[in-house]
User: Fold this.
Amino acid sequence: MKFAKSAVKHRIPILIAAVLLMLPSFYCMAHTRINYDMLDYLPADMDTVKGQDELMEDFGKGAFSFIVVEGMPVSEVSALKSRIEQVDHVETVLWYDSISDVSVPMELLPDKLYNAFNSGDATMMAVFFDSATSADVTMDAIREIRAAADSRCFVSGMSALVTDLKDLCEAEEPTYVGLAVIFACAAMVLLLDSWLVPFVFLLSIGVAIMFNLGSNLSFGEISYITKALSAVLQLAVTMDYSIFLWHCYNEKLRTIPDSKEAMAAAISDTLLSVVGSSTTTVAGFAALCFMTFTLGRDLGLVMAKGVLLGVICCVTVLPALILLLNKPLQVTRHRSLIPDMTSFSRKICGIFPVFLLIFLLLIPPAYYGYKKTNKEVYYDMGQCLPRDIQYVVANEKLSETFDVASTHMLLVDSSLSSSDIRQMTEDMENIPGVKYVLGLESVLGSEVPAELLPDKIVSTLKSGRWELLLINSEYKVASNEVNDQIDSLNAILKRYDPSGMLIGEAPCMKDMIETTDHDFKVVNAVSIAAIFIIIAIVEKSISLPFILIAVIELAIFINLGLPHYLGQSLPFIAPICISTIQLGATVDYAILMTTRYKAERRTKSSKESAAAALAVSLPSIIVSGCGLFAATFGVAVYSDMDIISSMCMLMARGAIISVLMVAFILPAMLILCDKVIIATTLDMRKNVKPAAESAAL
Assistant:
């Protein structure tokens, strides 16, 4: 109570402090770097990651790209190559004039080399950068290359991907927050008992969001997924706390005429429930920190921090705003549009065996779909982008024209003999899907005297420690075919050079697939265990955590199972994140009803208690669920990035499914397990006797 009175007493200084803190928050938010490269989140001890470091250290090369040029005369291509070479951070551009003068017909090149870089009226350049794939300077270089070229040129590679991803995100992200605010506000206006209070809620939550985004500067950088989703998710999952405080405040006004005293009492009563409610949500996000693929930690820490800041603002900034605007808030109150749920609740509990049967019948198809969806996810981030974006068009052009869907890079010991390299190359080219292997000895050394090769070519492909070979594959990144191919290539590589490394986008993606598959199991286990413990402590029960988690997990299975039945493929990160977020964010609905059930059960039968708990808690659950749905649904429909739209759609749909599960299944489970609940719940064993059921329903 002391804190509550202090918050009310210092309401004006709190508002002033909040406004003043917004200024550095805006500054810090603007200076927080955003990472658009998913591969950066792989564990640093993986060979693919080490290989990229070796490539940068020994060759001064980081990013790599193919440029396809169509219908352009040789002289113009040569001039274009010269312009590209002048772009900052372009380390090397390989084309046929890197080996021979343009006055010499291309047809005189070795067949293998000619076919590698030419197809019909199209030719191809290999571009190496001296900066990392997702570095800001690399993205600037990609934009400059595109500006130096024309519509006949197509720039592929991971750097082109992250460049287009960044440009699309920066164009769409302001709209995400706007849509979330508009839709959430519309839902609150319709469902709450005041026309004005939703805007006050959004103002308070907006302060918490700005504090969260600004404090991200302490991390140095955050992922683009975190930036795109954090504000929307924070708005969606913390709206509950504002609703709790508002309802409690109005209840207190009925017995406490002074608004400041009523608010202090409301803060005091709400604080424990808000802290308890937020704990499960924080636990859900914190579970993501156990991912070895550190994108989960990135999102988990930011969102856990956001929820905590939401709680703080709920019990400090929001009370100050409500008291400041108390008169207009009371004037604009209206009757809630949600009808009385007493009759509905009694009917639901009266036929509870029907819902138990539905529960049992839903489990097999939901779980089957859930498992299938997890196996049908995609990892190629190019699939997240619109089909007409430059990177996607370039990749399709590269595949159609040159039959190259992915490129691997091979680092072998520079002391390895030329004969061994040639034999290794021959073995690798016999692997299905390998189009060709390009390197000094493998292509040129047998047909062109090494001493005639330009120094630039030699230094590009060979250092004091390593020799670099390029392997072009017909198989797409993250496909089963390319992953099998990578295993075969690594097996051959290790026979000739145990220290050699196979790197590039496809090998990194293969590592990411294996890493995230393990992470999914770990994160699920951690989130369930953490939330189980929290529920057990809050409810002082051993049985209730099993019941509540079972209900919400079924909602998760249904939500994540639907994509399989609808023929949809999700980005790989979506099931991992949504399974924990939905559990943490919506289990509160079940806790709210269960807490009320326990209180009612002291004087009523199990059916009567379940009906009363459902009638009282369902309006709040509907408002909360609809708020979460509204805040995410608009973004899901609007976004052109599939990874953003998929996660928001899953959150929106998951909120509604969880509400339905809690409304129809949870009361039936409470009635069914009543005796077990009483026997295993500390405060019920003493105060509740398993009496005969009343026929009142």
